[in-house]
């Protein structure tokens, strides 16, 4: 142990100091002299000595090890515990302040939160980076090593879960009271490995080495009921009353995570629920003497929060998934009503205190749940309950794909939640009466709009239920919101045009620029100061620097540094060698046919084919490394076949000496937030190539532009807005527009004609079918090539020629490094709009009608 470490231990936090309590139950008032307090924002905070003392105390008393014998993991846990101490005073203070002000809170209901690592963000938000680095150095510990020890909580699949994480970061930073509600999955998104190029899923054991960022509150557990039946009775006033008699229940245990605002002292809660068996549940079985059965019952209850469903965009109608949805939503409503509101609060005023934002349809069962609580437990009549419920919910739709819209069979729903199904029928009856009144005699319309569908079996269309219940319904980019009105919910937008609105997605600039790209952040700060971190539109001030040679050089140096950092990472992590000086062409996102990884792959195969057949001299290729990163849903056969094909193409191309130094394909496994933070800052070219009208927004596209990559993309999702803001000449547009896609679909799309008619397409597909990538096995990738030539639902072949032409424009521009860098700078300068802070301002103004506390 270093000498100085010993000296500082006696300055540990005194245990007997009692905090000032101004209001029972809500913790200490903020006091700058309190040992856990942070110094006021803006002044030089904390001290290195104090940090070392707290760190060693954590290491000794919580981890039970001496510094000299501590593992990296013990050190990481102690560091996390230390940072948590610094945040704790502000967390308690935030809670006290919010309760005291009786401020309206945003209840963000999301089945997924793709948080990414916590340590770096917590250090940044509390301005402890430098102090921690120096303090740890005194102990002979490297901060980066400890940061790399953290396993990210992967409690989401992709964009939707990451969006929730960006939003709660922005709300905390903007001083808006928010509780994020979700599920504490014991196993998050699977860890992807490759075996012979095929995806193999490993369980994500993110809790195995300790979970220092959460604190459970079993004392605030709530009970959640399932099953059974309902009973009607008439009360003393002659009113009909319904009682739900459930048949089983579980306990929801809250685990709190701190969501720190950036340097502003606010720390909002993220409350994730874990399922446990209730005593009542197993006691009866224990009493019956069947010990084994009782333990099995426990396992059954705990299964509810066991694992995240790894489907992205194509939900499976599994019973356990519906259990998960109701479980977390019932816990969250109960928690808010019983623990966040004052005793005796009049629930008629509930909309003045909460707005629940439904992140897609996963939490929509909250609507009948609130109705049930108000009517069956609080004596509201239907109209009163509906008035309150309608004002308390807003709904975000995230898709246009019909197969992504959740429908729960009434059979399953009625078995699991009989009272809720009754209420849904009640909502539907009253809603259809309203439709018939607005459109008399239009029975076809009433049939189309019914929340209940009869095909293929009777089911509840959750998107319709959400739309009927919500005060506002929003899409996630301008084009998507338009298509939502025109194509997905046209009858609803005709009935309630004012209910529909748009909020274009955003990403947090703290994680995805300041933290992920420290070099570029420094370059930006040197030029325009640091105000952009919380006011991203100020990046506009960089526009004048796009003509400044020194700035361009510094910008390029930052990009090169990021590439070197990535090179080191991929060598150590995946055994992949990135060549120097290549155009880094990156396509990272979930694997889905609509995103069209095959279009990118066909481009690679086509280049290779042209070299093999002598049509193209290797020396004429722009040196390029194509990086893929993508997980496929384990049950999505085609997506997994495409992953296999990408890996096989990579193997062949990378081994062929004639492409040495010219074309390389890299596919690091297990794309997640941690990898995104390293990949995106290094990228030159961002691939956003979905079929127009299919990608609701995309947020990966925003992260890349913000980090100075140029986009090659279709007119889809937020690409439309990115292109409009950065300017046509700094964006490589290709492909059909959405109306052109619709027109081609209506005419009848024949991919075979493109295969026959376009020599490059035919040669590329034939090369795959030749067996060159599959050790001579010509059938190995038949599923992929047959699908392309016979169905091609997402029209990759129709856009191929345009895509290749756009890639040629990319290469031309890249040859002029100065012009490329200038465009990259302008992409950064003009991406301020895509801050999730701006998204939150839009939600506050258009949907939530609440304000920052400040
Ligand atoms: C941003 C992000 C996504 C979303 O990417 P899209 O390109 O918008 O689909 C998915 N996964 C991770 C890990 C991300 O960081």
UniProtKB/TrEMBL annotation:
Gene3D superfamilies: Glycogen Phosphorylase B. One of its GO terms (cellular component) is cytoplasm. GO terms for biological process: glycogen catabolic process. Its EC number is 2.4.1.1. The modification N6-(pyridoxal phosphate)lysine is found at residue 703. It comes from the Bacteria. It catalyses: [(1->4)-alpha-D-glucosyl](n) + phosphate = [(1->4)-alpha-D-glucosyl](n-1) + alpha-D-glucose 1-phosphate. Keywords: Carbohydrate metabolism, Glycosyltransferase, Pyridoxal phosphate, Transferase. Residues 1-27 are annotated as: Disordered. PANTHER family: GLYCOGEN PHOSPHORYLASE, GLYCOGEN PHOSPHORYLASE, LIVER FORM. Belongs to the glycogen phosphorylase family. This is Alpha-1,4 glucan phosphorylase. It comes from Raineyella fluvialis. The lineage of its organism: Bacteria, Bacillati, Actinomycetota, Actinomycetes, Propionibacteriales.
């Amino acid at each position: 142990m270093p000498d100085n470490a010993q000296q500082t231990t006696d300055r540990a936090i005194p245990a007997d100091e009692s905090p000032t309590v101004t209001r029972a139950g809500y913790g200490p008032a903020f006091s700058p002299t309190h040992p856990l307090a942070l110094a006021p924002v803006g002044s030089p905070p904390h001290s290195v000595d104090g940090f070392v003392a707290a760190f060693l105390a954590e290491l000794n008393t919580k981890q039970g090890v001496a510094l000299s014998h501590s593992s990296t993991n013990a050190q990481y846990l102690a560091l996390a515990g230390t940072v948590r101490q610094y945040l704790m005073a502000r967390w308690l203070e935030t809670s006290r302040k919010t309760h005291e002000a009786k401020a309206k809170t945003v209840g963000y209901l999301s089945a997924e939160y793709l948080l990414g690592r916590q340590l770096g963000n917590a250090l940044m938000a509390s301005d402890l980076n430098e102090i921690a680095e120096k303090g740890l150095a005194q102990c002979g510990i490297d901060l980066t090593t400890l940061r790399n020890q953290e396993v990210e909580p992967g409690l989401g699949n992709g964009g939707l879960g990451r969006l929730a994480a960006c939003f709660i970061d922005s709300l905390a930073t903007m001083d808006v009271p928010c509780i994020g509600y979700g599920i504490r999955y014991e196993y998050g998104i699977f860890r992807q490995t490759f075996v012979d190029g095929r995806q193999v899923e490993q369980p994500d054991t993110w809790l195995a080495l300790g979970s220092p960022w959460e604190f459970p509150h079993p004392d605030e557990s709530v009970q959640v009921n399932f099953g059974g039946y309902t009973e009607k009775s008439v009360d003393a006033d002659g009113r009909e009353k319904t009682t739900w008699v459930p048949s089983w229940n579980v306990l929801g245990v809250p685990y709190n995570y701190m969501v720190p605002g950036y340097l502003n002292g606010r720390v909002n809660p993220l409350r994730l629920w874990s399922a446990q068996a209730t005593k009542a549940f197993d006691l009866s079985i224990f009493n019956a003497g069947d010990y084994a059965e009782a333990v099995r019952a426990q396992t059954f209850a705990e299964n509810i929060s066991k694992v995240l469903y790894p489907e992205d965009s194509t939900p499976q109608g599994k019973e356990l998934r519906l259990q998960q949805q109701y479980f977390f939503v019932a816990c969250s409503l109960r928690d808010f009503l019983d623990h966040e509101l004052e005793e005796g609060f009049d629930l008629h005023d509930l909309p003045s205190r909460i707005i629940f934002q439904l992140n897609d349809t996963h939490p929509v069962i909250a609507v009948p749940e609130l109705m049930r609580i108000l009517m069956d437990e609080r004596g509201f009549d239907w109209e009163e309950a509906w008035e309150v419920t309608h004002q308390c919910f807003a709904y975000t739709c995230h898709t246009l794909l019909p197969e992504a819209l959740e429908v729960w069979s009434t059979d399953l729903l009625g078995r699991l939640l009989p009272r809720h199904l009754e209420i849904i029928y009640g909502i539907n009856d009253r809603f259809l009466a309203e439709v018939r009144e607005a459109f008399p005699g239009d029975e076809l319309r009433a049939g189309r709009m019914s929340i209940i569908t009869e095909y293929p079996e009777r089911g509840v269309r959750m998107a319709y239920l959400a739309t009927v219940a919500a005060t506002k319904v929003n899409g996630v980019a301008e084009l998507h919101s338009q298509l939502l009105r025109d194509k997905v919910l046209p009858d609803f937008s005709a009935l309630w045009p004012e209910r529909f609105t748009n909020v274009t997605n955003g990403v947090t600039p703290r994680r995805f620029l300041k933290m992920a790209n420290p070099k570029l952040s420094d370059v930006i700060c040197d030029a325009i100061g640091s105000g952009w971190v919380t006011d991203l539109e100020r990046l506009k001030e960089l526009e004048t620097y796009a003509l400044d040679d020194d700035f361009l050089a510094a910008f390029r140096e930052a990009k090169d540094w990021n590439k070197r950092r990535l090179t080191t990472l991929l060598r150590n992590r995946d055994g992949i060698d990135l060549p120097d000086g290549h155009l880094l062409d990156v396509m990272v996102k979930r694997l889905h046919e609509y995103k069209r990884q095959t279009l990118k792959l066909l481009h690679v195969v086509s280049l290779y084919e042209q070299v093999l057949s002598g049509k193209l001299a290797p020396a004429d290729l722009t040196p390029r490394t194509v990086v893929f990163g993508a997980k496929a849903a384990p049950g999505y056969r085609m997506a997994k076949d495409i992953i296999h094909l990408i890996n096989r193409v990579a193997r062949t191309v990378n081994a062929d000496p004639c492409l040495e130094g010219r074309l390389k394909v890299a596919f690091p496994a297990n794309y997640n937030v941690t990898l995104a933070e390293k990949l995106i800052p290094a990228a030159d070219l961002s691939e956003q190539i979905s079929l127009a009208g299919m990608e609701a927004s995309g947020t990966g596209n925003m992260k890349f532009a913000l980090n100075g990559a140029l986009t090659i993309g279709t007119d889809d999702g937020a690409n439309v807005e990115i292109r409009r803001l950065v300017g046509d000449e700094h964006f490589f547009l290709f492909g059909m527009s959405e109306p052109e896609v619709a027109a081609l679909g209506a005419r009848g799309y024949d991919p075979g004609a493109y295969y026959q008619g376009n020599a490059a397409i035919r040669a590329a597909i034939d090369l795959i079918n030749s067996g060159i990538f599959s050790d001579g096995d010509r059938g190995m990738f038949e599923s992929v090539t047959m699908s392309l030539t016979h169905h091609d639902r997402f029209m990759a072949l129709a856009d191929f020629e345009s895509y290749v032409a756009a890639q040629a424009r990319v290469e031309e521009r890249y040859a002029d490094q100065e012009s490329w860098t200038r465009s990259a700078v302008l992409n950064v300068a003009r991406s301020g709009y895509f801050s999730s802070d701006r998204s939150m301002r839009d939600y506050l103004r258009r949907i939530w009608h609440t304000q920052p506390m400040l």
